Amino acid sequence: MIVANAAVSMLWAANAHAVEMSDTFQVHGFMSQALIVTDHNDFFGPSSDGGGSLEYTELGLNASFRPLNNVLVAGQLLARQAGDIQELNDIELDYGVIDYQFYSSSNMTSGVQLGRFKNPLGLYNQTRDIAITRPSILLPQSIYFDRTRKPALSADGVSSYLEKPLNNGVLRFQIGAGKPRMDSQSEVSAFGRDDLGSYSGKTSYIGQLRYEHDGGGMILAMTYANVNARLDSKPSGPGSGRFSFQPWIFSFQYNRESWSVTSEYALRHVKSSGFSEPYNYEATGESWYIQFTRRLSADWQWLVRYDSLVTNKADRAGSDYEERTGRPAYTRYAKDWTTGLQWQPYSRFLISSEFHNIEGTGWVPFQDASEISSQEKYWNMLLFQVSYFF
Description:
Layout: H1 2-21, E1 26-38, E2 53-68, E3 71-82, E4 92-104, E5 109-118, H2 149-153, E6 154-166, E7 169-180, H3 184-191, E8 197-213, E9 218-233, E10 241-255, E11 259-273, E12 281-295, E13 300-310, H4 319-325, E14 333-346, E15 349-360, E16 378-389
Antiparallel strand pairs: 1-2, 1-16, 2-3, 3-4, 4-5, 5-6, 6-7, 7-8, 8-9, 9-10, 10-11, 11-12, 12-13, 13-14, 14-15, 15-16
């Protein structure tokens, strides 16, 4: 509540000051609160308890202005509660860039962004924090992992972009280099625990080629990233070494007035090296989903989606992993059927609900590998969310 009050106070102050500063000065924000109920496997707090979990809250405030016609300064503060992964009082700079557009004509636009830029990862990553831009409360977890959200979301460095209008479409290219933001959950995802030493991002790269046909009637995109990190081990740890992650993501969306079909497919190569056993490993995972959304009316939308994750293509069912480690095979994959409804009674207010029927726990966040033993193979999740935008 303190963060919400602060966000509202900042909003009114900024609005009162906007006219005085510049006609280009803008402030926007959002607030979202969710209730999550599961029959097994806690997700963002004690969701499997009788009353469910209210530990999924998002509060954001962003501002932008143009000191020059070809320069944009923009940033966003975010306060987010996501179970034990992130605390609401841990306010962070979600992104903050100086965008210099050094060339602009009717045939092409190009520019560069300096600062903390959003990664062009797939179709949804650059706007994933804002509920109104998501087709569902949770994005497909096989590609948009919430347990590795921080390094996926943004990086500190430089990003350049080019936009080229074509006869009946627009071609966009973006490439960036910088240091990803690692956190304890990223370390847990890489090594199964977060007490091995100091885990930090190293220079990484990302690029996306995107084509939008006929005003967004069809969207095609291809994304590649080379994400690097280093663990400086404690004396009692596995020794210092490196972790790398290279995903290829192929995205497709087809839009009509009352319905849309979206699908993304990813190959994810991961490797850790320089450590003592069992912390050295290498694998190629596979992720994909297919999603159908139907706009029932001006303010109602329905969704159905199937989402699949395999941690290692060479061991799809996880049986080799279970034999080698003694941990359940179903922690290495996830199959998720989702259906949901969104109701937007007016432009600034959104009410969402969705139901997940899941086999496997391949993308479930956890703080320590010991939690895996209490997870169930088959489980269901029900979510409700109320969101406000300004």
